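ligand=arginine
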Amino acid sequence: KEAKLWGGRFKEGVTDAVERFTESISFDKQLYKQDIKGSRAHASMLAHQGLISASDRDSILEGLEEIERRIENGEFNWRADREDVHMNIEAALTDMIGEPAKKLHTARSRNDQVLTDFRLWCRDAIDGILVSMKQLQVSLLTLALRNEGLIVPGYTHLQRAQPVLLQHLLLAYVEEHCVYDVFIVVIILKMYVLSDLFTHLIKEVIRILGRLVDCRARMNFCPLGACALAGTGLPIDRFMTSEALGFTAPLRNSIDAVSDRDFVLEFLSANAITAVHLSRLGEEWVLWASEEFGFITPSDSVSTGSSIMPQKKNPDPMELVRGKSARVIGDLVTLLTLCKGLPHAYNRDLQEDKEPVFDSVKTILGMLEVSAEFALNISFNRERIQKALPAGHLDATTLADYLVNKGVPFRTSHDIAGKSVALCTLKNCQLLDLSLDELRSINPVFEEDVYDFLGVENAIQKFVSYGSTGSACVASQIDYWMKKLEMK
Ligand code: ARG
């Protein structure tokens, strides 16, 4: 058996069971790119500081280049007895270039190394998720553009509530994934900071402040050089490596640098929230695809069948979006539980932080991709929706608003409209089927113009408040998003 890189004080090797149990190479090899990148920056800094020679640095850089090539061509031999990605690469480098490789770990511990790799990996992962998220938004907006003017029942408590434009609902989904552009908005805010637009823009910022973008910015600080926990007596330059790796600055406190997993908790929280959004979307579409609702028909390309029931066509992708949200939530809970009992600084438990993150990212990317595809592959059954619209007195609140316009206090208006609904229930008809005499028998304030407010088509025209479902408001929201998503 090969001696461990840390084996100086040991007389015996570990048992096979311990080796199998403690290895992380089976999953952390995913960090190889970031590990090599970190080592390049570290070696260059060591040479700049006179801690290694320029020729040692060059051999290290050449060796790392070759290792990266081998990994990418599947020629690299990952060894469980070398524990993790860091030691696999360092040991392979030593096999390859000899003495200079032994200087690479100067003023570095795996504790700061793994976190440097992990922060870099998460940073890249966020960039990937942001692209997929934008793709989903574009798909939702495309679906909205294909269905201009379509009115659907809006629900609360899953009971019919008020009419809404389908576009309005689809834009609500788009808003949920509003996670970028924060910097632009902050700049705008600064520009207008002294003007009347201030309050309005503050609200805009709160809505737009992207969780992921925000988390990425807070994550982007460099642990490298914190070493095991205490820093080092050697004259390293942490600012140099931080800058070379594209971090904002080195982390201020070396103990914090190797202890902290807040950046992962925040990242996994953002993913869990996204997963919950997508799960709700999935639930809604699964419901709408049912015979009972019949609002949408997913195309064959996004449906699957039954092995026994020949007639079946199921919306499985969205059911799995709903189902896989459980994993993403679970990944967050795993990390929270992992961290809660740990003393500062590094503890080996923390090796368990990677798999939930890898799982969360992989799952969320799949969920985003399939939801975007599903959105482009559903058609709304206009006739069925149209037929369903008269049921449920969706115009009752508009009727109450009509009475408010006539000077009736809202509570009284609510009561009168409620009594009108009760009369409809008795007669088994719609509000617009009630005659003026019948309405006046409830309250004499009704006039002929009440019929401009009744019926779903009329009712929807009455919405004018900012952010409401009225056609003009929705058109301006569409316009906003088309510009933001560069669709025009
Ligand atoms: N594989 C380890 C991890 O992922 C690297 C750090 C190990 N450090 C140590 N002192 N054993 O956490």
